[in-house]
Design brief:
The chain has a six-stranded antiparallel sheet with strand order 7-6-11-10-9-8, with helices on one face. A five-stranded antiparallel sheet has the order 2-1-5-4-3, with helices on both faces. It has a two-stranded antiparallel sheet with strand order 12-13. Helix content is about 45%, strand content about 20%. By secondary structure, the chain is α+β, with helices and mostly antiparallel strands. The protein contains eleven helices and 13 strands. α1 (about 20-80) packs antiparallel against α8. The chain has helices at about 20-80, 85-90, 105-115, 115-130, 170-175, 260, 265-270, 320-370, 395-400, 405, 415-420; strands at about 135-140, 145-150, 180-185, 190-200, 205-215, 230-235, 240, 280-285, 290-295, 300-305, 310-320, 375-380, 385-390. It is rod-shaped.
Length: about 425
């Protein structure tokens, strides 16, 4: 018969040292840091690829739209250049001593031309064409570069009588048949792209017809809901159109020395364009370094494309300031995960300490009851109606004269309880 008392209490689990706790907290910090960094790099790569892809799509769209507009105007110019009224006007001797016309002769020559009925009739024809095709201006130059008809002939700033022989648009059109150049309008004050087409008679050059297009009058061409900068840059590296008016007539970094290249700076740009203060950088996209510019503290992905057969290029500058927003969002999420993890660890440690305290109290209570010269027991009845001894002191088992295993048998539990009572 056993008199060893109630079942021995389980050993109290040791407390976790503070060094181990700090180690676990540091391990969780490292896991969150590594996982967050890998996630950030993955999301940043995807975001940059999306910026690059969408920017490339917008670049191609802008290039194709510009090319379509320019080619349509070239086609229009070639058709108009074949009209007999233009050829007859160029064959007429309207400008005396045409080879020596300069700026000093402009006002007097203008008045003389406006007095001619045939000049006014030809100018009216150009005026109707400009209105029908929504062009800023159309004018006709003789073989020496003097304007003999102008769609804005009734405007005080008409270019009638002005000579533009030094402009590349005129000389290139005489040489190759057509050309394109951005001009500000030294006389007319009407900036735009000058599409120049040579007027021939039996393969004999007679003069040049110029159609001036104002891209800024086509705002839908530069609409961009994503806030990207869309720019048209001419052969001299000067920004001549786009959706950033403050950069208009400024030169992009790395451009040529315009003081040595431009023959008519007042007519082209109303002066020498100054370069913008941008800083060159690169952006890593799909394992390659892509060009970028830092503009007023914001990095922009730079994508460029030349307009086929035209002396202009289009630029798309995509701001990348959302990179910082992406990083801040991930830092906030990572900090939340880090704090939640530390909270879980802390709650786990608090729970372990509470269990240790309860175990210590239970152990002290058992030791105290074993030392008392009394027969103590605890009897519990479960939900199924069966009872069992939760605790029996050695004195109680001695009084019953039975072992612990025998006293725990359910059918006799209440009988044993009666005996003890």
């Amino acid at each position: 018969m056993s008199t060893t008392g109630a079942p021995q209490s389980t050993a109290i689990s040791p407390a976790i040292p503070w060094r181990s706790r700090l180690g676990l907290a540091a391990l969780w910090f490292a896991l969150v840091l590594i996982g967050g960094s890998l996630l950030h790099l993955h999301r940043l790569s995807d975001w940059r690829q999306n910026v690059d892809s969408s920017g490339q799509d917008r670049l191609i769209s802008l290039r194709d739209s510009l090319e379509g507009n320019f080619r349509n105007l070239l086609a229009l110019g070639r058709v108009v250049a074949q009209e007999p009224i233009l050829q007859q006007g160029l064959k007429s001797d309207w400008v005396p001593d045409a080879e020596r016309v300069d700026e000093a002769d402009r006002i007097g020559l203008r008045d003389a031309l406006l007095a001619r009925v045939d000049v006014r009739n030809l100018s009216r024809r150009l005026e109707r064409l400009a209105k029908d095709f929504r062009l800023r201006q159309i004018y006709l130059q003789d073989i020496h570069g003097t304007v003999i008809a102008d769609s804005t002939w009734q405007d005080p700033l008409t270019v009638l009588g002005a000579n533009f022989r030094v402009r590349d648009a005129f000389s290139s059109a005489l040489r190759t048949g057509s050309s394109l150049q951005y001009v500000m309008g030294r006389v007319s004050k009407k900036p735009g792209f000058a599409i120049a087409v040579r007027v021939d008679d039996a393969d004999q050059p007679l003069g040049v017809l110029v159609l001036k297009l104002d891209l800024q009058a086509m705002p839908q061409l530069f609409d961009d809901p994503l806030g990207r900068a869309l720019i048209v840059v001419d052969a001299n590296g000067v920004m001549v159109a786009g959706n950033r008016p403050k950069w208009h007539l400024r030169q992009v970094p790395g451009g040529i020395d315009l003081r040595q290249q431009i023959k008519d700076p007042a007519g082209l740009y109303r002066g020498i364009p100054q370069p913008v203060d941008w800083t060159a950088e690169t952006v890593r996209i799909e394992g390659k370094d892509a060009p970028a510019w830092v503009i007023q503290g914001t990095r922009h992905l730079a994508q460029t494309a030349a307009v086929p057969s035209m002396p202009v290029a289009v630029w798309v500058l995509s701001p990348m300031d959302d990179e910082h927003k992406l990083l801040l969002g991930e830092l906030a999420a990572g900090s939340t995960i880090l704090l939640v993890g530390w909270m879980v660890l802390w709650l786990g440690w608090k729970r372990q300490e509470r269990l240790r305290l309860l175990e210590a109290v239970r152990r002290d209570t058992l030791d105290m009851t074993r030392a008392l010269p009394l027969a103590l027991f605890r009897f519990r009845r479960g939900l199924d109606g069966r009872g069992r001894f939760a605790y029996l002191s050695p004195q109680a088992m001695g009084m019953l004269g039975r072992s612990e295993a025998e006293l725990q048998e359910a059918p006799r539990s209440e009988e044993h309880t009666s005996e003890l009572q």
